Structure formats: structure tokens, C-alpha cells
Protein: Holliday junction resolvase RecU
Amino acid sequence: KKHHFTKYGDRGMSLEHEINQSNQYYLSKGIAVIHKKPTPIQIVKVDYPKRSAATIKEAYFRKASTTDYNGVFNGYYIDFDAKETKNKTSFPLSNFHQHQIDHMKACVRQNGICFALIKFVLTNEIYVLNSEDLFYYWDDQFKGGRKSISKATIDKFGYKIDYSLNPIIPYLKAVRKIILKYKEI
Amino acid sequence: KKHHFTKYGDRGMSLEHEINQSNQYYLSKGIAVIHKKPTPIQIVKVDYPKRSAATIKEAYFRKASTTDYNGVFNGYYIDFDAKETKNKTSFPLSNFHQHQIDHMKACVRQNGICFALIKFVLTNEIYVLNSEDLFYYWDDQFKGGRKSISKATIDKFGYKIDYSLNPIIPYLKAVRKIILKYKEI
Ligand SMILES: [Mg+2]
Ligand SMILES: [Mg+2]
Structure:
């Protein structure tokens, strides 16, 4: 049975698509309202043809200054980024940028729930790593620590999320545990 | 003195720019983390020239499925849209779309704080109208009610925000009142 569920991660659906479908499920069931933010674009030139829609003729991708996903779950502000790695034994911290970490730190200061959703694509395994753990290893790399988080560490401190039928990635299970651990002491 | 402050709304700065600067102030002071979402774009054609950045050659504006701004303030999920009207005596409900209202209703069900930030541009007056009031008048229009909310009603049930030096639009003052009214009974 678990093998059956695991297949969902193999179908060539992108991680972003899997998360979007999971969010759509959560939305449709009234469980949470979480959306991917649009990709930020720098628009340079727009044509306004008569009788048809404005056409963007020149634009560039901008670097996102925050994370990809945010929303609200049961009164809690939720904010996370999804990252994939082809690495088998560790998650390279270079997948994050300083401004994304800064953004998550600012959100945590406002009592938001922030985390990384990390997919090891070769083994099709997904983990939720709470921001406090991510921050620890992020900051540690500038004090001589390693530039990656070992998978063993992620397995120990993070929450493994098994692919399921619906939602495909039931990551709010991990969020509930994070809330229980950090918010209701 | 009030006249001096009021000038900030006259400078030709767009409402969006004023809100972004206010959000930047709140962020820099550690008061809240609230951002405008990027404009959603449907990308059709991208060039990948050698040695330079990918260039979007054809793209179209998509209708936003949610609201323009969201974030976190003191543990609360904040979600709002900013609307301008040249109308002097009322706010036409056609400034909102059903899907924006649906989005805000879903967020309120998750205990988020949602509202409209409404600017009467001819008089340079800004109001925060809590979503519960917005929903009442929105729904009422389909039961034979009027297609706009009178400014008198907005003045009675909403929160007037005076332009100030920093932040330019101190709308979190109204949010604090909404939290006191709805959340801490
Ligand atoms: Mg990402
Ligand atoms: Mg708007």
C-alpha cells in the first residue's frame, strides 16, 4: 500500500505542481488557505493593441525576495519554500538565499510558522524541516560549520511526509506537530 | 499640522507605492511582515540568449485569484486588497471580484484578518473596512441591495486612516482595533 502511494511522486509531476494540488485540496476542504506567490517579473515593454489584451513584449525574471508559499491555517500564518535536491545524503544550504532566510526569520519573530519542504528527488522522499532547525544550520555554516544539512539530521529533526492520494503531499500533518511543539507549551 | 501630513497623499505617489513604503517601514521596525504579491503573468514565449538573462518575449496579464497583500502581524494572518475610487459619495462594489471575496471569506474561516483599504482619491481619504462589513454589503447586492457602499457607511463602520510621515499609511492602527474587536472578546 505504501508502495502504491509512493508512486505519486514518480509521475513526472513537478514538486510545485504536487504542492499546488495539495493546497487546492486543503482549500476545497476548508482546511487551509495557502497559495504559491506568482513569479516576480520585471516588465519593460507592453503593447496595447486595439481590441485585444495588453501583450508584454519584454520582461525579465526577478529574484524572489521572499518565499514561494504563504497563507493561513487555523489562525496560524504559514510561510515556506519548497526545495529539491539530487543529492542523496545531504541538503546543500546553497538552495536557500540569505534574503529568504531573513524573510523567514522576520516572520518567525511575528509568530508565523515557517519551514522548508525538502524533496530528495532520487529517493522520492519529502521532509518538512522547521525554520528553527534550518536557521541553526544556516547560521552555523558561517561559523565554520558544514555547507549542507545531512539527510540523517533532517531525518532526525524534520518530519518525513509520505506521499498520499489526497492531498498528494500532506504537509500540514507536520505543521500540526510543529504547532504542538512550539506554540502550545 | 494635519494639513501638512495630508499632503503626502497628494504627491502623485500611487496608492500601491504608499502601501509598499508603509510595509517597508513596518518590516524595518520589526512590526509586521506584509508584502504585495507579484502581478500574475501568463508567460508564452521566453528567449534564452547566450551570456545574458532569459528574456520574456510574449506574456499576458492574468487576473489575480486572491488579494494583493498578505503577511503576518503579531501572530495574526493579514490579508487585504487596496482599492481606489474617484467616486465622492460611495464605493462601487464592482471594484471587487467574486473570487477576491471568496478568498477573503476562506481566510476569515481560518481566523485570518481580512479587510479592504479604500482610498477616495478626490478627497484623499483612506479607510480600512473590515471584511465582515464588506461581506455584508457584497452579499446584500445580490438580494436587491445597492451596488455600492455609501461613504457615510464606510465612515461609520470603517476606520479612517490619516496620512502620516512614517508610515505614510498607518493602517495597522485599524488592524489593532479590528483584532481587539473580533479576536479578544
Ligand atoms: Mg522554491
Ligand atoms: Mg488591488
